[in-house]
Amino acid sequence: MGSGPSGSSMKIVSAVITLLLMVVFLGYMMIWSMTPINTFYLNWFPDVEKKTSSTYLGEQGSTILIYTFPILFISTVASLYLHLVRKYDHDHNTSRFFSRMIFSRRLAITKGPLGIVTRTELTFLAMFVALLVWSLYSYMHDLFAFASVQAAQEKTQVWEVKLETAGLSLGLVGNTCLAFLFFPVARGSSVLQFFGLTSEASIKYHIWLGHITMAIFTAHGLCYVTYWSRTHQISQMLEWSKFRTDKAKVSNVAGEIALLAGLVMWATSFGRIRRKFFELFYYSHHLYVVFVVFYVFHIGFAESCHILPGFYLFLIDRYLRLLQSQKKIRSVAARILPSKTVELNFSKSSGLSYAPTSIAFINVPSISRMQWHPFTITSNSNMDSDKISVVIKCDGSWSHELFQILSSPSPTSRLEVSVEGPYEPPSTNFMRYEKLVLVSGGSGITPFISIIREMNFQSNRRGSRTPRIHLICAFKKYANLAMLELLLPVSGTTLDLSRLHLQIEAYITQETEPKTVDKSSIRTILFKPDPSDVPVSAVLGPNSWLWLGAIISSSFIIFLLLIGLLTRFYIFPIDHNTNNMKYPMPASAAFGMLFVCVAITIAASAAFLWNNRENGKELNQIRTIDMSTPAPSPASLVYETELESFPHQSLRQATTVLLGRRPNLKKILSELKEENIGVYVSGPRTMRQEVAAVCSSFSTDNLHFESISFSW
Predict the structure, then answer these.
(1) CB within 8 A of 142, min separation 6: which ones?
(2) I need a labelling partner for 62 at 20 to 30 A (CA). Which of 2, 219, 472, 533 fits?
(3) CA distance linking residue 363 with residue 215, whole number of Å
(4) What is the annotated localization of this protein (predicted)?
């Protein structure tokens, strides 16, 4: 522990903050469960609306208070909590306790369309589906009671009115899904980190929510189109209402445009299409902007405040990523390995630290200015104080083009790169196990490179006890064994690897005899420095969580001020004039969206520029050092390395190569089930499912399973 609060004090503070945020979150979820019932909609909500619909906040005052404020409050306080944990609890004992207490890792499903699902995840999914079913039932039950009266007034059949009512109910339930849809894709979210989650691991929640949301909204649209067709009101499809009336409460055209954009994203997001046509999926998903904008036009800004908090946090995260991506990063070197694998090394600021299995998003403008690809960071911030590394396997058009650039006979002397991140996992307490079993397939070994480097560093610290490590890696070709060289930094290490209890079993599945590796394919390229390049650094500096909390709170205050000024001095006088004029709903929606963007831009830009100024001295020093270093001559740009020349003899001694075989995971794990084991798997989906199935068959509580979402 460093200077500051003691361990016991930190635990008390953590417990108080955790209790506070859990109470607020449970209250927020309770509001969603009560939203469909008449008591809330007809009594409680109107009472709150009367007290909050002032001349400053207008009709959106109540929805902002009830649905938006709680989540932004949670996110702000969670940012403060994470800052305290990072500053005073270096081992993250408090966050680990909360994560283990809330999120059990016992597996419930290992195969199927949902993927690998823990019991906790399945429980929360069942509760969320129950909330949706309850909401749909409540809405339809209450609205169907008036179907006969409405049918008589409109001279239509009762079933047709019920069809329209069902469409309305589905739309309201879809709002519930949409309220949570953007939380998992905010990469730097304090909410996810507080709950022990990462954006990469939470993508499956976004996928689940996306499928449910689009299924509900599609049914919503079909109900209305069928109703209009049956009642000869098909012209309603072209209706764009400027004012909210009894007959026209929404803008139909805007809803149809939003639905079409959503359908395109949905159609390209299914697994087979996404994997086979990734670029189609990637570019079509940018239609989320069209979807959200026209969704707000469809229902109005006041109603859209129900789903605002998730999208608000996503916008903050997206804008900060945009600011960070404008920097051109200093590329130091590239290491070319057989079977089209590349290790890229970048300069980093000394104040940037990250945990094992962190990821970074890489953009190479010479290939595509639009495409950003996630890669697991293989370097270790303790061993590599001035460098950060990622490993890229050629497995797609983007990575193939990058490999062609670097492996050409006359390699480039400078690689222009932009980086977003790094993004850390919430907990990396590998030291708590007696043994770590790391199972990888192909390039799935990349997350384990950072883990092994971290354990190597810890094993050389005085008085430090590290778990025994059993690395089981499977490769298709013998040449892929060169990836084991990445277990140690390219510059070598002064640490004694023999202190690390490391056992490596490398399986070559498609070859039965050792192959001679073309040594000319194994080389390192040194890049020339450029005055415009900067090292990788945190977008908001070393106190990033504290700054994030400040951005969330200050931007929300700015947003409220802008909305208040517009409502008080422009909208309110129009709505309450003597000429029965009303302020147009599309204009109100446009101003609301504009003010959200303006508030976030002001707050985030100010924080970013302030941190840039504070970090400017260090960046200038790094630039000076880089530029004062003699540039490598053409002859020294490329130099060969031997496949078998590992930096330490002990690494070769720890490795057993098994040709023409696949690992018998069930046998290996069953022999270890009596120990306190952490089993981590990273690789193809079939391998992850196989390991998950084996682990789930053991009844012991001493085995912890986790699937790492590797990126390369």
Answers:
(1) 36, 37, 38
(2) 219
(3) 33
(4) Membrane
Report angle CA 279, 281, 287 to the nearest 5 degrees.
115
* Rounded Cα–Cα distance for residues 82 and 79 (Å): 5
CA distance 189 to 181: 14
What pTM does this model have?
Answer: 0.87
Residues 6+ apart with CB under 8 A from 108: 117, 118, 119, 121, 122
Upper half-sphere CA count for residue 13 (Cβ side, 13 Å): 18
pLDDT of residue 341: 84
Strand 387-393 with 341-347, pairing:
antiparallel
d(CA 172, CA 216): 10
Cβ atoms of 687 and 681 within 8 Å: the answer is yes
**Location of each CATH 3.40.50.80 domain in the chain:** 328-536+664-708
- Residue 347 DSSP class: E
Q: Residue 13 in contact with residue 26, Cβ under 8 Å?
A: no
CA distance 203 to 208: 9
Stretches in the chain below the pLDDT threshold 70:
1-7, 51-56, 58, 89-105, 243-249, 426-428, 462-463, 489-498, 516-521, 572, 575-581, 614, 616-650, 672-675, 699-703, 708-712
Structural tokens at position 359: 């990821």
Residues 6+ apart with CB under 8 A from 404: none
Distances (CA, A) of 476 to 218, 257, 443, 487, 644: 44, 47, 11, 19, 19
Structural contact between residues 471 and 502, judged by C-beta atoms closer than 8 angstroms: yes
Report the C-alpha gap between 680 and 198 in whole angstroms.
16
Tokens of 302: 């006041």
Count of CB atoms situated within 10 Å of the CB of 401: 15
Is residue 136 within 8 Å of 170, Cβ to Cβ? yes
Q: Class of 328-536+664-708 per CATH?
A: alpha beta
Tokens of 425: 């996992």
- Cα angle, residue 85 at apex, residues 79 and 87 outer, rounded to 5°: 100
Neighbours of 20 (CB within 10 A): 14
> Within a 10 A sphere around the Cβ of 270, how many other Cβ atoms?
12
Alpha-helix residue ranges (DSSP H) falling in 53-184: 61-63, 69-88, 93-102, 119-144, 147-154, 158-181
Residue 140 pLDDT: 92
Closest CA to 252 of 230, 231, 228, 232: 228
* All residues at 6 or more sequence positions from 643 whose CB lies less than 8 Å from its CB, including other chains: 338, 481, 482, 485, 517, 519, 522
**In the chain, how long is the greatest CA-to-CA distance?**
91
3-state secondary structure of 245: coil
Phi, then psi, of 560 in degrees rounded to 5 = -65, -40
Integer Cα distance of 442 and 395 in angstroms: 11
Q: Which two tokens stand for residue 155?
A: 């001279």
Using the structure block, give the residue that is written with the tokens 């800004």.
Answer: 301
Helix (H, G, I), strand (E, B), or coil: what is residue 198?
Answer: coil
**C-alpha angle 42/70/170, rounded to 5°?**
50
HSE (side-chain half, CA atoms, 13 Å) at 338: 22
Give the long-range contacts of residues 567-574, CB within 8 A, separation 24 or more.
567/55, 567/56, 567/57, 567/58, 568/55, 568/56, 571/58, 572/55, 572/58
Cα gap 158→160, rounded to integer Å: 5
Q: Give the Cα-Cα-Cα angle 116, 199, 537 (nearest 5 degrees).
A: 140
Q: Identify the pLDDT of residue 296.
A: 94
If we measure between CA atoms, which residue out of 24, 197, 201 comes closest to residue 98?
A: 197
Strand order in the sheet with 418-423: 373-376, 359-363, 418-423
What is the rounded distance in angstroms from the CA atom of residue 591 to the CA atom of residue 562? 9
703: helix, coil or strand? strand
Contact 655/502 with Cβ under 8 angstroms? Answer: no
Distance CA 417, CA 543 (A): 25
